[in-house]
Amino acid sequence: MSAPYSFxxxxxxxxxxxxxxxxxxxxxxxxxxxxxxxxxxxxxxxAVRDQAYGPGASDLLDIYPAAQPGAPVLFFIHGxxxxxxxxxxxAFMAPALNAAGATVVVPxxxxxxxxxxxxxxxxxxxxxxxxxxxxxxxxxxxERICVSGSSAGGHLTGMLxxxxxxxxxxxxxxxxxxxxxPLSGLFxxxxxxxxxxxxxxxxxxxxxxxxxxxxxxxxxxxHAHCALRVACGEFESLEFKRQSTxxxxxxxxxxxxxxxxxxxxxxxxxxxxxxxxAGSAVHRTALELLGLDAG
Length: 295
Fold this sequence. Notes:
Layout: H1 7-17, H2 27-42, E1 48-52, E2 60-64, E3 71-77, H3 94-100, E4 103-107, H4 117-134, E5 140-150, H5 152-160, E6 179-183, H6 198-201, H7 205-210, H8 220-223, E7 227-231, H9 238-253, E8 258-261, H10 281-290
């Protein structure tokens, strides 16, 4: 006879599974690496800091142009469970990707609990629409944008390759991004509703549904040429791994191109750093999606 269902036990399980910080011992050191390696990006020649993409105080993005015109663009969205970090600590991949021939764009967004998830998603869609319209001014190719992000940024990556929102932002109905590379993303928000995370997110059932990339998948016809790669750290929780594998399966079930990327020896916080580490599987995959020589 199976044990009776316990809501309290289920809540405790999901609290543990989605507590990314508890799965890694040296989180402060890794966050310090984000900041330190981003400082090197801020000093890159031609770097543009605090370019406005909208009227809000946080509607800002940084641009790290490649040396040559017509460069592909990595649009990277920071994580932090929608309530922490900023673009200032999230440009650590720019030096390596600039050297390989890519332009990097890192947008900011307002943070929870002051900002709702609907608002944050809207900001990132406006930032991507702005990038598509204006990045050629800095030598970027708007037809070769790869959207990426880690954790909450992986969720927002999924919301940018979702279907049905583009026309409202003055964009074509097909995929704006040529590729997407979410890292440790959250694609089904319903399990978060009864966790401590919802204490700062304030989601109800409807908000969780409309902001879950897993349930906002595009059609094959609109996104047939948007290549998806998905990665999750080897040492992440079962739930983070499930989120990524099920999202990729749902994407491929629509006959959309997608692949899993193995990232051995990584955790939730050091996985995104591999974007800036030449030779890593994550870095090589980013170059592939950007149409650059992975060596």
